[in-house]
Write a structure and sequence with these properties.
By secondary structure, this protein is α/β, with parallel strands linked by helices. Helix 6 packs parallel to helix 11. The chain is elongated, with a radius of gyration of 22 Å. Bound molecules: 6-O-phosphono-beta-D-fructofuranose (F6P).
């Protein structure tokens, strides 16, 4: 292999830059040229790329987001678009591609693999809903962002005897809500995977207030319902003043944590080593702190990773 390419696709997350840097430097150490497509598959379709060298990836390790930029490409989802993408890769004499992204991006990687092109996928999504990896890139940084925000909100909640609903990301996944509820000592987590029993939640909140607690914190995943409706429901049922804070895209940015810098560096390095050794069509993952490889076919067709029952059990015992 003489020429490899890399792209970041879908929602950005912290740690993507660390991954690109590691992949580029591993390629260079092996006398292989590396190019970076801009804005994910959209750049691949427009043949919009930049040649990456050791200097072009200097100073990005500590930066959130992705310096190659990212996008969601509707054109790449079509058969026509995918043929065009393959053609562009062949014209540029690219021997292998590293795709960093979430489920949609890995589905795209699988499509290229099925067309016979060597691809390695790297799981990147703050939702931590990609199967066959304990952790995806960006999750740890997002959790730390949430922790910082929630700790601040707890200060004001206790000063004003208020209940707060903090909405975190996760359209279909309650991982961030569940994990951050445990780590912040919240009273409840509301997740899309478990139907909310508002009456029961209000009953439990009332009990805690009767026991002397003066404030409450509820962490809710964005896909689990409407935060303001639930806040109104609490107010109507038990009279507590309940405020809503939506953390939104704040969660996805910021300097990556040590964990995400190391994870990105490991994923990036491994992805290039795999391509150079002739491995293709797999996603790099993390299991018991070791790197793993799983066929993209299994990752994509296996569907979303389930919320761990142990996490839900912990939350039941430790929260409230
Ligand atoms: O998949 C990652 C994620 O951050 C989700 O948690 C969230 O629902 C979605 O992306 C937001 O997407 P966008 O940035 O396109 O609004």
């Amino acid at each position: 292999m003489k020429r490899l390419a890399i792209l970041t696709s879908g929602g950005d997350c912290s740690g993507m830059n660390a991954t690109i840097r590691a992949a580029v430097r591993t390629a260079i150490a092996n006398d292989v040229e590396m190019i970076g497509y801009l804005k994910g598959y959209a750049g691949l379709l427009k043949n919009d790329y930049t040649i990456l060298n050791s200097r072009s990836v200097a100073g990005i390790l500590q930066r959130g987001g992705t310096f190659l930029q990212s996008a969601r490409s509707a054109e790449f989802r079509t058969e026509e678009g995918r043929k065009k993408a393959l053609n562009n890769l062949l014209i540029e004499k690219i021997d292998g591609l590293v795709v960093i992204g979430g489920d949609g991006s890995l589905t795209g990687a699988l499509a290229l693999d099925k067309m016979g092109f060597p691809v390695i996928g790297i799981p990147a999504s703050i939702d931590n809903d990609i199967a066959y990896t304990d952790m995806s890139l960006g999750v740890d940084t997002a959790l730390n962002n949430i922790l910082y925000a929630v700790d601040c909100i707890k200060d004001t909640a206790s000063s004003h005897d208020r209940a707060f609903i903090v909405e975190v990301m996760g359209r279909n996944s309650g991982y961030l809500a569940s994990t951050s509820a445990i780590a912040t000592g919240a009273e409840f987590a509301i997740v899309p995977e478990v139907e909310l029993d508002l009456v029961e939640m209000c009953h439990q909140l009332r009990q805690r207030y009767d026991e002397g607690r003066t404030n409450a914190l509820i962490i809710m995943a964005e896909g689990a319902g409407h935060a303001q409706e639930i806040a109104d429901g609490i107010k109507n049922a038990i009279g507590f003043e309940t405020r809503v804070t939506v953390l939104g895209h704040y969660q996805r940015g910021g300097a990556p944590t040590v964990f995400d810098r190391l994870l990105g560096s490991r994923f990036g390095m491994k992805s290039v080593e795999l391509l150079l050794s002739g491995t293709k069509g797999v996603m790099v993952g993390l299991s018991a702190n070791s790197l793993t490889t799983t066929l993209l076919e299994m990752v994509v067709n296996g569907g979303q990773k389930k919320l761990n029952d142990d996490l839900l059990h912990m939350e039941e015992i430790l929260c409230i």
